[in-house]
Design a protein that fits this description.
The structure holds 2 protein chains of 2 kinds.
Chain A (H helix, E strand, L loop, with lengths): L18 E10 L2 E7 L3 H7 L6 E2 L6 E2 L12 E4 L7 E5 L10 E4 L10 H9 L7 H5 L7 H12 L13 E13 L3 H11 L5 E4 L15 E2 L2 E2 H14 L3 E4 L2 E7 L3 E7 L15 E13 L3 E3 L12 E3 H11 L6 E6 L5 H9 L3 E7 L6 H10 L3 E2 L2 E8 L3 E8 L12 E4 L2 E5 L2 E3 L2 H4 L6 E3 L4 E3 L7 E3 L9 H18 L39 E3 L4 E2 H9 L5 H8 L12 H12 L3 H4 L13 H5 L16 H6 L3 E5 L2 E6 L7 H14 L2 E4 L4 E6 L3 H8 L12 E7 L5 E11 L2 E6 L4 H15 L6 E4 L4 E7 L3 H6 L16 E6 L2 E6 L8 E7 L3 H12 L5 E2 L2 H10 L49 E8 L11 E3 L10 E11 L4 E9 L8 E5 L5 E7 L15
Parallel strand pairs in A: 1-7, 8-9, 8-15, 9-12, 15-28, 17-24, 18-19, 18-24, 19-20, 33-43
Antiparallel strand pairs in A: 1-2, 3-4, 5-6, 5-7, 10-11, 13-14, 14-15, 16-25, 21-22, 22-23, 26-27, 29-30, 31-32, 33-39, 34-37, 34-38, 35-36, 36-37, 39-42, 40-41, 41-42, 44-47, 44-49, 45-46, 46-47, 48-49
Chain B lengths: L17 H6 L8 E5 L1 E7 L5 H11 L10 E3 L4 E6 L2 E7 L3 H11 L5 E4 L4 E7 L3 H8 L14 E6 L2 E9 L2 E7 L3 H12 L3
Antiparallel strand pairs in B: 1-7, 2-5, 2-6, 3-4, 4-5, 7-10, 8-9, 9-10
The chains are: A alpha+beta, B alpha+beta.
């Protein structure tokens, strides 16, 4: 396949970065094309003379490639060969081609060539002012969603893949003395000067190779092609071990404290799907002491009639395509400029062997250097003139040129037609100030360069080069060298001299401040003069917005959508502001500035999540017995980050059947649960008892050595937030247990009160949750089983309920607590976690004859509910006092020192009548298990809205009682024993129940105290 | 204080990484990851209890590393600074009880010693990819200029946290809580699988 716009032979650029020996085939909108290695999609399409790459957002107008970098507004493509590898909104100017690449226009449903929206736009375009959609489709408002869907599809933005992303992404943390953003002449020079001091330097560039604008221009450095200097410099940096070089890596976000995020595309430039074992993208999270912004600048197009016809391009982009890619995007060029720099585009075009129709300069004169070059090349320069209107449909056929008056605001003569197929324009450059705004900087307007530059908001950031409004190459290099040395010195290094390459000094005439080319007709009647190509915002639209009363640039932006596309208005913002300012009769700085937020260019979700997906999405904490649980068929439940066995189904058992079996086995024989996840805090020190007195509601002064006690913890608000058993090992040594999910919070709570309020108490806390595995056996046969395996005297007259003993169990040293969460005779065996499995297996070996049954959290919940034991967080919700739980017995108001929450327990609200109180519920139909969360009413016949008096907190079927049991919180419930209550359900039925004590089983506690 | 290791050495012992290291072996030419069986004692002591601090030196032969983020070691022990009044003493496998008994015998006043040998473990991570693995895992600056040999930090590690200490140019010790073992081991194996 031919590439008609590829420059060949003697006219080919020697500095081209494409490798013509490596042809590459790719497809665009299902048509195959050929380019070369090193081509972007954009350069390859231009080489193949593809003019139209998409349709515009609102009017459906054909659009072509405008730019050659991140600022491209039109060539926004959908990339990907398979559903899973779809990538939306890729800039064709930044994506290299690789063999087999497939891409499509995102705009222009149902087709780019002919489309519905194009017709709509053409017919009704003039009736579609800003706010058109909102104004037109306002009523009926409920249909907006339908309209919006169609409009969005017609307007077309990229779509997300519907299949799971098969690629791997990674995050890496980087630390640097100096991070240099941008690897053009300024960035490379700054990096060299910083790195030579020994500072740790990161140099990152978004392109596939270093060099920046030098790759697009024909400058000589130190008298040789710039590429020689680039190669030598990068070699030096690459071999220094204090330097990290990153290409295809966009510094996208500048966050507080010089924390920056770099989005590196590792395989995107070569593969649709990353090869096995390689990651597709990497997010570098960089903390830098100093940041040098060498971000360069984006050229500003001039705004004129029909300036969106394919073939209208930025002057610098045309030069880039010619010099870097050996692609000349047309046959006849008409150049319009307000500055000397863009003349180079005409020379590059001329050198490629094609015709430069003329240079239209808005100024009355140009600099000597460029005028001489133009004269030598025989190129006509037309001063004090402008292109007022381009003509053509899917490509330019000719352009109307007219003389300008000296203000640039009016035309001063008659039109002359120029036939051409390419119009390149330049109204100067906008420094890429984006990153400098991310943490709150406000760019400063500089009249002399007609552009915003970064302010000095961040003292650890330096802007240099074109990114700081410096344009002559020789000045860029000198300034960047100083910036590199300065940044290194700010990090404590010692740069004594700077060095930089020498570039030619040119005689440059001042540029002219002009943004919007006047037309013979008023802006509102003239052919559309586009400002924001991606969102179809015109000069007329901005003027209308101002007329309609929007004075703040932020309001104008929101009303017109200026700068709201995926390009964030990189080309359009300044032109838009200039037009608004002129209409308002103000200067640009008076009109305000627009600031930028992260990210500079779009970032994939994959790169943001990194490896925190699938098995790494959240931490799974395992007990020392986890493998046994897995091997024995446990179903698991998440408790905080812990994976706890939920129940152990046998064969085809349902959960209900398994839980009934586990419950009965524990009530009638012996059950065993892995309770290792319980939080355990070791407390040592002479003031340990006093500390416990202060953090628990009950009293600890008299707890004897070897005894255990249940305690409630309240916040300062008097509300219960944790509970557990604490045991006295020796006078100065206690072991506290907490809920599994509350362990970290309780530990912090203790430390905070100790460190901030009571540092005089001599006490230390250490988490021993992971140190001790807790194997809890429970049931009438628990003592028989344990007796076979321990040297501890289990005589119930001496080893009583709530006692603690140390000894050996199954050959392993253990602490055994006779405490019970089931209401049965229970022993909690604590062993060092490394030996947990050995003891656990021994218990099963000896327990087989007692039919020892492992149970999980569900059975534990049922067994404890049968006994009316609360679970903090299930039966409480942060609004329950100990009294609300009918646990006043666990509160000791008489303690010498106050305890946390005490004062709140006497508040008006906490002592009022009719607080919600914890009670038991027995459904009238014993088989009906009320859903947890059911709302409770007293009058089932009351009309909606009914008066709700409480809700069900726990509800289960009790196998041993052969009926359903529930716990609930009900207003004044403790005084309503025996009353009937009702629970209306979503299906219209009502469950009837009777209020009762929450202790359903063995109310006297004979089983747990059994002798 | 109890000796928590059984007298009968035939009783099966499963260190923290026992299962995960079998299921996800860390086999790479680029790095080495191994669990070290060691005794762990957490010591909490106020700086005002100088007698007890001296007693520690008499038992261990090392001054407590009072310089933040530092560690000291001799042939038998490593003491890691964890917090101004908190230190982690690592000792040879199964010697923790004897050491604790000796310390308690010599120390007086207010202090706490807790045996956590089963609750946490030490991973030895080394090799040319070791530092890179840490960079993928922790926000702490692990470059040798900021994290020299002997320095010890408690820091975030992926979504978890741990204590890490540099033991050589390319070698580190990571102190990991037992219940986070699987997560951290697998994370390291995953991070180490790519350059």
């Amino acid at each position: 396949m031919s590439q008609p716009n590829r420059i060949q032979g003697n006219n080919a650029s020697a500095q081209s970065r494409v490798d013509v020996s490596k042809p590459i085939t790719f497809s665009f909108n299902n048509k195959p094309y050929t380019g070369y290695a090193g081509d972007t999609i954009a350069s390859a399409l231009l080489a193949n003379d593809v003019d139209v790459v998409g349709r515009s957002f609102k009017y459906g107008r054909p659009r072509g490639i405008v730019a050659a970098g991140a600022e491209e507004p039109n060539a926004i493509l959908q990339l990907g060969k398979t559903e899973a590898t779809q990538v939306p909104n890729i800039r064709a100017t930044q994506q290299l081609i690789y063999e087999g690449l497939e891409c499509h226009s995102t705009n222009g449903w149902p087709s780019t060539e002919r489309d519905v929206m194009g017709v709509v736009g053409k017919l009704f375009g003039r009736f579609m002012p800003p706010g058109f959609y909102y104004k037109t489709f306002m009523a009926p408002s409920k249909l907006w969603m339908t309209y919006e869907k169609m409009i969005r599809k017609g307007a077309g933005l990229g779509r997300s893949p519907k299949a799971v992303d098969p690629d791997t992404y990674e995050t890496i943390n980087q630390h640097a003395d100096v991070l240099v953003v941008g690897g053009g002449p300024a960035g490379i020079t700054a990096a060299l000067n910083a790195a030579r001091t020994g500072a740790r330097v990161i140099l990152a560039d978004e392109q596939n190779e270093f060099g920046g604008n030098l790759l697009s221009q024909t400058d000589l450095l130190d008298g040789a092609p710039a590429q020689d200097w680039i190669d030598n410099s990068i070699d030096e940096l690459a071999t220094a071990d204090n330097v990290t070089l990153l290409i295809n890596a966009t510094v996208n976000g500048y966050h507080d404290h010089n924390f920056l995020t770099i989005h590196e595309r590792c395989t995107d430039q070569s593969f649709d799907l990353a090869p096995e074992g390689e990651i597709r993208q990497r997010m570098h999270r960089v903390r830098a002491k100093q940041v040098i912004l060498a971000t360069g600048a984006h050229e500003r197009p001039l705004v004129f009639g029909n300036n969106d016809i394919p073939g209208c391009m930025l002057a610098s982009a045309v030069s880039t395509y010619i010099n870097r890619y050996n692609v000349v995007p047309g046959k006849k060029l008409l150049l319009m400029t307000s500055n000397d720099n863009a003349y180079n585009t005409a020379f590059d075009w001329h050198n490629s062997g094609r015709l430069v129709r003329a240079i239209i300069d808005t100024r009355p004169a140009a600099g000597k250097t460029v005028v001489k070059k133009a004269t030598d090349a025989g190129i006509e320069i037309i001063y004090s003139s402008a292109i007022v209107q381009a003509q053509g449909n899917t490509c330019i056929s000719n352009a109307m040129v007219a003389p300008l008056d000296e203000t640039g605001e009016k035309l001063s003569g008659s039109v002359k037609q120029y036939d051409c197929d390419t119009i390149a324009t330049s109204s100067g450059w906008n420094p890429a100030v984006h990153l400098s705004c991310h943490t709150g900087g406000r760019p400063t307007w500089r009249e002399d360069i007609q552009g915003f530059v970064p302010d000095n908001f961040n003292k650890n950031m330096i802007a240099t080069g074109a990114g700081n409004g410096l344009y002559p190459l020789t000045e860029i290099l000198q300034d960047a060298a100083s910036a590199g040395a300065f940044a290194a010195n700010a990090c404590g290094f010692n740069a004594t001299k700077t060095s930089y390459a020498k570039a030619a000094v040119e005689d440059v005439a001042p540029s002219m401040p002009i943004f919007h080319i006047p037309h013979f007709k008023p802006t509102s009647r003239a052919p559309k003069q586009f400002v924001d190509f991606q969102l179809d915002v015109t000069a007329a639209g901005i003027e209308l917005a101002v007329q309609e009363g929007f004075e703040s640039i932020e309001h104008v932006k929101r009303y017109t959508a200026l700068g709201f596309g995926t390009d964030q208005g990189k080309l359009s913002n300044i032109n838009g502001m200039a037009i608004a300012a002129k209409k308002l009769g103000k200067t640009i700085p008076e009109t305000g500035t627009t600031v930028f937020r992260p990210n500079y260019t779009p970032v994939t979700f994959g790169a943001i999540s990194g490896r925190n997906v699938n098995e790494f999405f959240d931490i799974e904490r395992y007990s020392a017995l986890h493998t046994w649980h897995v091997e024995n068929g446990a179903e698991f439940e998440d408790v905080g980050q812990w994976k706890r066995p939920w129940y152990f189904p046998k064969g085809e058992e349902s959960m209900h059947e398994a839980v009934n079996r586990e419950c009965l086995a524990t009530r009638n024989g012996v059950g065993i649960i892995d309770a290792s996840t319980l939080g355990k805090i070791d407390i040592q020190g002479p003031d340990a008892r006093e500390f416990l007195n202060r953090v628990y509601t009950n009293a600890w002064s008299k707890l004897p050595v070897g005894r255990c006690r249940y305690g409630l913890m309240c916040g300062e608000d008097g509300m219960v937030f944790d509970d557990g058993v604490t045991s006295c090992i020796s006078d100065n040594h206690f072991i506290m247990t907490t809920t599994s999910g509350g362990a970290a919070h309780v530990f912090n709570w203790l430390e905070i009160w100790h460190q901030t309020e009571w540092p005089e108490l001599e006490v230390y806390f250490n988490s021993v949750t992971d140190q001790w595995a807790t194997l809890s056996i429970s049931g009438p046969k628990a003592r028989l089983l344990l007796g076979e395996l321990t040297d501890i005297d289990l005589n119930p007259d001496t080893f009583k309920f709530m006692d603690l003993r140390e000894g050996v169990v199954a050959g392993v040293p253990a602490r055994v607590f006779r405490i019970s969460f089931t209401g049965e005779q229970s022993y909690e065996i604590n062993v060092q976690a490394n030996y947990a499995l050995a003891v656990w297996e021994k218990l099963f070996e000896h327990g087989a004859k007692y039919d020892i049954t492992p149970y999980g959290t569900e059975t534990m919940h049922v067994l404890r509910a049968e006994k009316g034991f609360i679970i903090v967080g299930q039966d409480t919700d942060g609004s329950m006092t100990p009294y609300d739980l009918d646990m006043g017995w666990a509160v000791s108001p008489a303690k010498e020192f106050s305890f946390l929450g005490k004062r709140s327990l006497a508040r008006e609200d906490t002592v009022k009548e009719n607080r919600k109180q914890l009670v038991g519920l027995k459904t009238t139909d014993a088989k009906t298990v009320a859903p947890e969360g059911s709302q409770i009413v007293l009058d089932p016949n009351q009309k909606i809205p009914m008066t709700m008096v409480g809700h069900v907190t726990s509800s289960y079927y009790s196998a041993v009682l052969e009926r359903s049991i529930a716990m609930a919180v009900i207003k004044g419930g403790l005084d309503k024993m025996g009353d009937k209550v009702y629970m209306p359900q979503a299906d219209g039925t009502t469950i009837e129940a009777e209020i009762c004590s929450p202790v359903f089983y063995d109310p006297k506690g004979e089983r747990q105290n059994v002798k | 204080m109890m000796e928590l290791n059984p007298k009968d050495t035939s009783i099966q012992r499963c260190l923290s990484m026992h299962h995960v290291s079998q299921k996800h072996p860390a086999e790479s030419v680029h790095y080495s990851l191994q669990e070290m069986a060691l005794g762990h004692l957490m010591v909490r002591i106020p700086e005002t209890n100088t007698d007890a601090i001296k007693a520690i030196k008499s038992v261990i032969g090392l001054d407590l590393p009072t310089q933040p983020l530092s560690s000291v070691e001799n042939n038998h022990f490593v003491i890691n600074w964890i917090a101004p009044d908190e230190f982690l003493i690592l000792t040879a496998d199964k010697t923790e009880h004897a050491l604790e008994a000796k310390l308690r015998e010599e120390m007086s006043g207010h202090f706490a010693i807790v045996d956590v040998s089963g609750g946490q473990t030490v991973l030895s991570l080394s090799g040319e990819r070791a530092e890179k693995i840490l960079k993928k895992s922790s926000t702490y600056d692990v470059h040798i200029s900021n994290f020299p040999i002997g320095k010890v930090v408690t820091t975030v590690f992926a979504k978890s946290q741990l204590v890490m200490r540099r033991t050589g140019a390319d070698s580190f010790q990571l102190v990991v809580r037992r219940s986070f073992s699987d997560y951290i081991w697998q994370w390291i194996v995953d991070a180490g699988s790519r350059a």
